[in-house]
Every structure is written in structure tokens, then in C-alpha cells.
Design brief:
Shape: elongated
CATH class of the largest domain: Alpha Beta
CATH architecture of the largest domain: 3-Layer(aba) Sandwich
Number of helices: 18
Number of domains: 3
Distance between the termini: 65 Å
Strand content: 5-15%
Structural class: alpha/beta
Strand order of the largest sheet: 7-6-5-8-9-11-10
Order of helices and strands: HHHHHHHHEEEEHEHEHHEHEHHEHEEHH
Largest sheet: 7 strands, mixed
């Protein structure tokens, strides 16, 4: 008798470990997917975690009403968790562009998954209560539960998302859930009241998820083509973002976390406006710093100036810079700029890198993604520009992309005002980019910005060195009563979410 009890205890304790690992993975996938598709990672993860924990409480409460053979019930719930958690990303990706109330479906998945996971732990404790002493039962169950959660939180960003992606990860863990159910069906057949039925259900569920896992890339491509309305030619989930490249005839478009970064037909207007005003007005251009801009387009524009001796590009995402350095089509677009011997590429958080460095630069070009979440918002903060001040000389020209003054005037002027707290002379300007609309920038310096031109490039497609023409703003692009963006308030993220939420 003892020989049977010990294996059962260990087996069910291992099940606790698997439940905790899989459950947290499903929660993290939901949070990451919501961030990819809906933006504002802090809000999305906060809501997901809150709903998940609440639903676990609901499940734990209703566990006491479960009657009959508890091991049978546990296996059935394990199968349900595997199916619902496993298919969550596939279903949500397919529904995102076709369903008006997408968020309701997202939170239903989170709620049902949390309820089922919440039922499992009390159910296991009821199964084991007559086999294990209570003090050992509680401590062992919670120890395995928390160890599983720790493993999931480590594996998710470091291994699972980079290697499997956002769709295959929950399917993989759904297969693990159901594998446990299959094993229990055979190993505990004498303890079960309906072993044949449970075997059929668990094996059927396993085959279903396995088929989805095998064809998940095709399903994801189909859903992303529906989402973007174009032929998806490249996708990659890095630890930091979802990278999608689409093609429509000769036009290529890059999306990061569902946000358009450039169109190959008109990106030159954006990058010429970003780079050439500062490069032409700087007294020296020996050493250039580019923060962001992992696509290499800003580097391409800087390289048109033969006087440049050294360039440093700091971009967080190594997947991004590697793709634009090695992909043949992207190399043609950026003119192989990321392989230029004058350039040093550093894959690191720009905030940390700026804080750790003291080298002075003649021109600093800042091409970060829009401040759609708090991780990006810190890169537009007063504290960041204060750190950046150490890298500038009296003659340094700094330029920052500052989102749209037409669609998001509060965001635009908030960035401008924040920069002006550190650098006494700033000049806001804007240009029209067909794929984006009206887009803005801000130049900053310790000296007055008077449009004095020190050098010109003759073969530009768009910029004609008439800076004053770009500096005129109509009344509908102006606003008042704007706060400075600080780390402790992150007001810019709220402005951005409020303004772009109306557009979308």
C-alpha cells in the first residue's frame, strides 16, 4: 500500500509544478499578446494579472463543490486547461482584425484559464489530504507551485518567446498539460472511474493541439496578412517586440508591435528631415551618435557626409539590427549602412548606455519608437535628457523624432517642452510623410539655432535646406498647458494614449 501512495504523491506534486508553470505561461502570453496588439504594456499586464488572480480565486472557491471521483475531475480539468490555454494565441490573433470586442474575448480566455488553474490546486489538496500529513501537504503544494512560477517567468522572455514565438509557446505548454493528463490516465487507471473515456479525450486533445502546433506558422501568417492587408514576408518575435515586414508590389512596410515604422516608398522624407538639418548646421561632424534607428536608414543619411569619422548606433534589439544588416532587400534599402567600417553597433538599452558613457558627440540623432508605453516613455523623459547633456558640447546639435504635431499635438509639444528644460535652444519642425501623415521633430542645442548651413548634400530627394519652411506650424498643430515628462509622472504616455486612441 505504501508503495502506491508514495508514487501518487510525487506524481501529483509534479503536476502542481506543471500546473504553475503552464498557468503562468498562459498569463504571460496573454499579457505579451495584449501589449503587441493593443499597446501600453503596463496597463495590459496590470489588467491581465488582476483578472487572472481574481479568476484563480473564483476557481478555488468553486473547487469545494466538485463531487465524485476527484482524480477523474482533475484529469478533465487538466485537459481543458491545456486546450483553452494552448489555443489562446491562435484564436486571438485570428480574431483581432475581425472582432469589434476583441478585448472581451481576450479577458474571457484569461478568466477561464485562471478559473481552471484555480480549481486544480484545491482539488489536488483534496485528493492528497488522506495520503499526506496536512503540514507537509500545504508546504509541499505551495513550494512546487512557486518553483513552477519562477521557472516560467525565467523561461518566457529568455527562451520561449525568442525560440518559439507568441503562438507556439502556449500550444507547446498546452501539449505539456495534456501529456500529464495522458500519463495519469494510464498510470492511475485503477483509481479512475472512466479510464477509457478520459484516454480518448486526452489523446484527442493532444492530437488537436499537435496539429495546430505544426500548422501554427501558416495560421499566424494568414492572420497577420489579414491584419496588415499585405503579403507578410518576414516575422520575428524578439524579447522586446514583434517584428513584421510586409510587401505590397514594390513597397515594403515594417511594423513593430503592430505600429508602422516605415514605408519604403516615402521613408526618405522622414529620414532626410530627421538627419540633414542637424548635420548641416553642426560646426563639426566627426563623431555622430544615433540612438534607436536599428533599420540603418539614419546611418545611411549620415554616411552621405564624407567628413564623418566615427558613428555609434545604440539600439536595444539585436534581432532588429541583425535583420537589417543581413537581409538582402533591407541592405539595398539602407545601402548596406550597418556594415560600414565607420559604424559601431551596440545592442543595449539606450537609457542605461547614455548613463554609463561620457564621450562627446558633434551630432546626436534620436530615432526612438513613439512613446506608446512606459518603457519607451522614459526615453523621452527629463531625466534622460539630463543624462544626454553630458554627451553634448556647446556646439552639439541634437535632433529627436517627436511624433505627429497634427494627430498628437500634446505629445509633440510635451517632448519639445521637456527637451527645452535641459537644452536652452530648441526648434520644433515637421514634414509630411504620406504613410504617416504630418510628422514632427525637435532640434536642440546650447547655442541659438539660426539655420546657418556649414555643408550640403546635393543629391537629396526631399530636403532642400530651407529649414524655416519646416518650422512653421498652423493653429491646429499647437496646444497649451502641457506638462514636462518626468520619470515619476510619465505624462507623455498618457498624452500619447489619449490622442492616438482617438485616431485609431
Amino acid at each position: 500500500m505504501d508503495k502506491k501512495r508514495i508514487p501518487l504523491e510525487l506524481l501529483l506534486m509534479f503536476s502542481v509544478f506543471v500546473i504553475a508553470t503552464c498557468g503562468l505561461i498562459y498569463e504571460l502570453v496573454a499579457g505579451a499578446l495584449a501589449s503587441y496588439l493593443l499597446g501600453d504594456s503596463v496597463k495590459q499586464f496590470s489588467f491581465i494579472i488582476g483578472v487572472y488572480l481574481f479568476s484563480m480565486g473564483v476557481g478555488s472557491y468553486f473547487a469545494k463543490f466538485i463531487k465524485g471521483n476527484l482524480i477523474d475531475k482533475f484529469i478533465e480539468i487538466e485537459i481543458l486547461v491545456g486546450i483553452i490555454g494552448g489555443i489562446s494565441s491562435v484564436v486571438l490573433f485570428v480574431l483581432f482584425n475581425t472582432l469589434a470586442h476583441f478585448e472581451a474575448v481576450l479577458y474571457l480566455f484569461v478568466f477561464f484559464t485562471g478559473c481552471l488553474v484555480g480549481v486544480e490546486i484545491p482539488l489536488l489538496m483534496n485528493i492528497l489530504k488522506d495520503r499526506v500529513q496536512f503540514k507537509d501537504l500545504v508546504s509541499n503544494v505551495f513550494a512546487f507551485d512557486y518553483i513552477g512560477a519562477l521557472l516560467a517567468s525565467i523561461l518566457f522572455p529568455l527562451v520561449l518567446i525568442p525560440q518559439l514565438g507568441i503562438v507556439k509557446t502556449p500550444l507547446f505548454f498546452g501539449l505539456i498539460n495534456i501529456s500529464i493528463a495522458i500519463f495519469l490516465c494510464f498510470y492511475l487507471k485503477k483509481e479512475l472511474s472512466k479510464p477509457i473515456s478520459l484516454r480518448i479525450k486526452s489523446i484527442g486533445a493532444f492530437v488537436f493541439l499537435l496539429v495546430l502546433f505544426i500548422f501554427s506558422d501558416k495560421i499566424l501568417s494568414f492572420s497577420e496578412e489579414k491584419l496588415y492587408g499585405e503579403n507578410v514576408v518576414y516575422t520575428k518575435s524578439s524579447p522586446y517586440q514583434r517584428i513584421v515586414l510586409t510587401r505590397n508590389n514594390r513597397e515594403f512596410r515594417l511594423y513593430l508591435n503592430n505600429n508602422l515604422q516605415f514605408s519604403s516608398t516615402d521613408e526618405y522624407r522622414y529620414h532626410e528631415a530627421l538627419v540633414h538639418p542637424a548635420m548641416s548646421m553642426a560646426k563639426k561632424i566627426d563623431n555622430i551618435l544615433i540612438l534607436g534607428g536599428g533599420d540603418g536608414f539614419a546611418v545611411r543619411e549620415v554616411l552621405k557626409y564624407k567628413d564623418v569619422k566615427n558613428m555609434t548606433l545604440v539600439d536595444l534589439d539585436g534581432e532588429m539590427t541583425n535583420f537589417f544588416k543581413t537581409n538582402e532587400t533591407m541592405r539595398q534599402l539602407n545601402q548596406n549602412s550597418l556594415s560600414n567600417p565607420k559604424l559601431k553597433v551596440i545592442n543595449k538599452d539606450a537609457y542605461i548606455w547614455v548613463k554609463e558613457n561620457t564621450k562627446k558627440y558633434d551630432v546626436i540623432i534620436i530615432d526612438f519608437p513613439d512613446p506608446s508605453n512606459y518603457s519607451l516613455g522614459k526615453l523621452y523623459s527629463l531625466q534622460f535628457y539630463k543624462e544626454l547633456e553630458r554627451l553634448a558640447t556647446l556646439d552639439t546639435k541634437i535632433v529627436v523624432q517627436t511624433t505627429s504635431p497634427y494627430f498628437a499635438p500634446k505629445s509633440f509639444w510635451c517632448i519639445e517642452k521637456t527637451i527645452n528644460q535641459i537644452f536652452p535652444f530648441t526648434s520644433a519642425y515637421h514634414t509630411y510623410v504620406p504613410s504617416f501623415g504630418e510628422w514632427g521633430f525637435s532640434m536642440a542645442s546650447f547655442e541659438p539655432i539660426n539655420n546657418k548651413i556649414y555643408r550640403k548634400i546635393t543629391n537629396l530627394k526631399f530636403y532642400d535646406y530651407n529649414f524655416s519652411q519646416l518650422s512653421y506650424f498652423t493653429k491646429d498643430m499647437k496646444t497649451k498647458d502641457i506638462e514636462v515628462n518626468r520619470l515619476d509622472n510619465q505624462i507623455l504616455v498618457r498624452y500619447f494614449d489619449e490622442e492616438w486612441g482617438k485616431v485609431q
